[in-house]
Write a structure and sequence with these properties.
Elements: H1 2-26, E1 35-39, H2 45-53, E2 58-61, H3 64-73, E3 77-80, H4 89-95, E4 98-102, H5 105-114, E5 120-124, H6 138-150, E6 155-160, H7 169-186, E7 192-194, H8 201-206, E8 211-214, H9 216-219
Parallel strand pairs: 1-2, 1-8, 2-3, 3-4, 4-5, 5-6, 6-7
Length: about 220
């Protein structure tokens, strides 16, 4: 069974890497600009080990309780991309290397107090103003980014966003690209863009995504 699972994941991963390569080529971008994060939420540590053996080093998780034991068991760069709860942050900062979903200053204040090591942080921006999928409003984005940039410990990487439901991904990521370019005028080092999942990563790459978060296309449906 384990051999079958390894083969399944290897086949899926090869197909995704090929699609990433083609999307980068169409966009006129270098492949090494794009980091593939394998989203391993709800899948066992054994799948993470298979991915690591296949050369994947970046793993994404949405839930602290599921992620902590996997991160302890399998080395790599661990990315937290779920909606943040204050009471989970101390634990999250004990295993995550990168946080993609920061959208409140009060959460960053907890990170400053509890994180045992420096973190790379993306500000999650809302593309439609709804609270359902998380994200700070454009109006509050700069205040949040300034707080992170002032930190002597943690590093502001750039922006993250999720395409709103029912919106054409190209329209969503075009808007994100405009927001990000304006943002970099004030935060020139924050040149990373975390956008795109299994259903829309090609569009995200076309509009400048540097980090794409892919789960089901690699590991199957949950």
């Amino acid at each position: 069974m384990a051999i079958d699972r390894s083969g399944e994941i290897a086949t899926n991963l090869e197909a995704v890497r090929d699609q990433i390569s083609k999307a980068a080529s169409i966009a006129g971008r270098a492949l090494d600009e794009i980091t593939l994060i394998a989203v391993t939420k709800t899948f066992p540590a054994s799948d993470v080990e298979i991915l690591r053996d296949l050369g994947v080093n970046d793993f994404g998780e949405n839930r602290d309780a599921d992620a902590a034991p996997k991160a302890a068991a399998v080395g790599g760069t661990w990315h937290f991309q779920g909606q943040i709860q204050s009471n989970k942050l101390k634990s999250i900062t004990s295993w995550a290397n990168v946080i993609h979903s920061l959208d409140e200053i009060r959460h960053f204040e907890v990170i400053e107090k509890s994180a045992p090591y420096p973190l790379d942080i993306f500000c999650q921006v809302s593309l439609d103003g709804s609270a359902g999928r998380g994200g700070v409003s454009e109006q509050k984005l700069y205040e949040l980014a300034q707080a992170i940039e002032k930190s002597a410990t943690h590093r502001l990487q750039g922006l993250m966003a999720v395409a709103p439901l029912g919106v054409d991904p190209s329209d969503a990521f075009s808007k994100l690209s405009v927001i990000h370019k304006a943002f970099m005028a004030d935060f020139p080092k924050a040149d990373k863009l975390s956008a795109g999942m299994s259903g829309d990563f090609k569009e995200a790459i076309a509009y400048g995504a540097t980090h794409i978060r892919i789960g089901s296309s690699i590991l199957g449906s949950r």
